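Section: Multi-chain targets

For targets with more than one molecule, the full set of components is provided together so that the structure can be written out for the assembly as a whole rather than chain by chain. Components appear in the order listed by the source. The example entry contains two components.
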Amino acid sequence: MNGVHDMGGMDGFGKVEPEPNEPMFHTRWESRVLAMVRAMGAAGAFNIDTSRFYREALPPHVYLSSSYYKKWLLGLEDMLIAKGFVGKAEVEKGHALEPAKPLKRGKFTVNDVERIMARGKFGRAAQAPAKFKAGDRVRARNIHPATHTRLPRYVRGHLGVIERDHGVQVFPDSAAIEAGENPQWLYTVVFDGAELWGADADPTVKISIDAFEPYLEPA
Amino acid sequence: MELRVRALETVLSEKGYVDPAALDAIVQAYETKIGPHNGARVVAKAWADPDFKRALLEDATRAVGTLGHVSRVGDHLVAVENTPQRHNMVVCTLCSCYPWEMLGLPPVWYKAAPYRSRAVKDPRGVLKDFGVSLPKETEVRVWDSTAETRFLVLPMRPKGTDGWSEEQLAELVTRDSMIGTGFPKTPGARS
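Its structure, encoded as tokens over all components, is:
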């Protein structure tokens, strides 16, 4: 979706301000939100792409004015309500009022913690031969799906070169809307700064994205 | 926020979805097991051991997997090498993708709009915000983490470190040097 989360190339957000000796969490609730998202995801309530989609779908003014973990909380609430795991009234009351809905992998317990500390695997078997190889010139398609996509706006319609092939992986555009994993070839595609930002761009800059095959066409 | 978060946690616990003790354990695991010390050991080993460096640049997931002391790394880790000709910098313009196992949880600035919006358009300007400047002919390569690939920058080994042990070298490796928004510490400089 063409949301405010897709920020690459936007102006006006000001300077980057690193915080000296930044703590891992600024308040206790931030750590609880992180833990709830990880636990409910691991228990099978949603996949990582769906959780990203719910955060992106927050109203633009909310997205831009909320801290990182507040966005995580709001996205989590919306997602659990939409999927029927909790009711709106329950969230407001802070107590269970209705029977639970079964989780795909059951209740998340202490025994499950170690498993989530290693990253998931997203590689899948190829469904078809790769259309592109390193060195091929490609154009990022001019597409504007209203649902989740990982093709940022700032590259759409632009010419790049395939640099690496990462094999076949879960396609976020499908997984996010629970339309199956629909695995696709994934490539690193590199663009010249001037191709993306015009003739005045810094000539020493190159930018790459990791692009799934459906995002690309031969050029 | 505290109350709202507690309310949701109570609901999830009362409905039998999560054991609150498991949430405690997750937080504890993040606080103790992951962090930039993992990435620093990988970088230091690459500086000290040319065979490991070659293996790391070829397949970082496999190479890091051979180091028993680093917490288990997931698939799709890619290490990118800084050279005098090329400086690498990592961003996630769409959200906050970051190599957690190598660097820990990302800092607030990495997840915030100023960095995410500008890193791909004006990387040298962003580096200036960090007090970093590069020679004007150096290529700046920005890696936007738009899929599940995770990128670790292998910074250049500081001069004056000949004969140093991996443990000594690891002390010089900063988190920002592995994101590409900083350099390693130089020997003798105050941290």
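Residues 60 and 194 of chain A are 29 Å apart (CA to CA).
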